[in-house]
Amino acid sequence: MMPEPPRPVRVPDLKAMKQRGQKIVMLTAYDASMARLLDRAGVDVLLVGDSLGMVIMGCETTLPVTMEAMLHHVQAVSRGARRALVVADMPFLSYQVSAEEALRNAGRLLQQGGAAAVKLEGGRPVLDVVRRLTDAGIPVMGHLGLVPQSVHKLGGFRPRARSEREAAQLLEEARELETAGAFAVVLESIPAHVARAVTECLSIPTIGIGAGPHCDGQVLVSYDIFGLYEGSLPPFVKQYARLGELMVEAARAFAEDVRQGRFPPAEERA
Ligand code: KIV
User: Fold this and answer.
1) Ligand 1 pocket member 28 (CB < 6 A)
2) Residue of minimum CA distance from atom 4 in ligand 1
C-alpha cells in the first residue's frame, strides 16, 4: 500500500505552532528539485526569496529580480512542494507603486505561481498594501529589520535596530503589521533581545534570520547552509554541508573520465 501523502502546512498552522511552542522551519528554494528535497526533509515553509537575484542570477543585490523571474521560480517550487507552505517574495517595485498594482502582482504569484502566500518588506509604508492583500484573501508575511530591497538607502547589508529608538520603532511597526493582517513576520539582522520583545508582544509568529534564538521560527538561505554560494556569507549563517566542493570534485571526476576515454564505458560507445 502507498503511504498516505503528508498533510500540507497551511497558513493558520503557523500561528498554531507558535501557540504550541513548536518552532517553524523555513528555508529558501528556487527550483522544483530543491523544493522536493527540502519538503522530504520536513521543512515547514519554502520561501521563494528574492535572494534568488544573488544566489541564482549572480547579481550584487535583490533589486534586479522582476515579477517574471519570480513567477518562473515560484511555479517551479510549487511543482516540487507537497507538504511545505510555499511563500513567494514580492520583488522590488512590485508592491511599492500602488496598492492596486500590489494586489495584481500578489494575485499572479498565487494564481499563476501556485504560492499560498506572499512576503513583502517594510513597516509603516506598506500597511495599506498589507490590508488590501489580506482583504482580498492573500496571506501576507512581513519582513522587518534589514530589508535588502532598501540596501542603498540603508548604506549596505548592515544589522538594524541597534539603538533604542530604532528598536522601539521596529516593535511598533511589527504591531502595526499584525493589526493590518500579516500572518507572520521575518525579523532580519536585529539584536536577539529586540527579536525576543517583538516575539513576546505579537500573537503572529516571528521568523528570525540573524535575530537570535527567541523567534518562533528560523529561516536561512538554502544555498548558504549547503555551501553552494561562493559569495561572502553573513556571520550568523551555519553551513551544514559543503555541497559546492562535492560538485566541483564530481565535475572534475567526470571531466577526467571523458578526457581519459573512461566515460562512456567501451561497450556503450558503439
Ligand atoms: O530573499 C530571501 O531569501 C529572504 C530571506 C533571507 C528571509 O528574504
Assistant:
1) yes
2) 49
Q: Look at residue 5 in the predicted model and tell me its pLDDT.
A: 78
Q: Which CATH number fits the domain 11-239, given the four candidates 3.10.129.10, 3.40.309.10, 3.20.20.60, 3.40.50.2300?
A: 3.20.20.60
Q: Which of 24, 74, 89, 160 to mutate to test the pocket of ligand 1 (most atoms within 8 A of CB)?
A: 89
**Catalytic residues, which ones?**
188
pLDDT tens readout for residues 22-32: 999 999 999 99
Q: Residue 268: pLDDT above 70?
A: no
What are the tens digits of pLDDT across the range 141-160? 999 999 999 999 999 999 99
Domain boundaries, given as residue ranges, for the chain:
11-239, 243-270
Any alpha helices (H) in the chain, and if so which ranges?
A: 11-20, 32-40, 52-55, 67-80, 99-111, 127-135, 151-154, 164-180, 192-201, 222-225, 243-259
**What grid cell was written down for 79?**
511543482
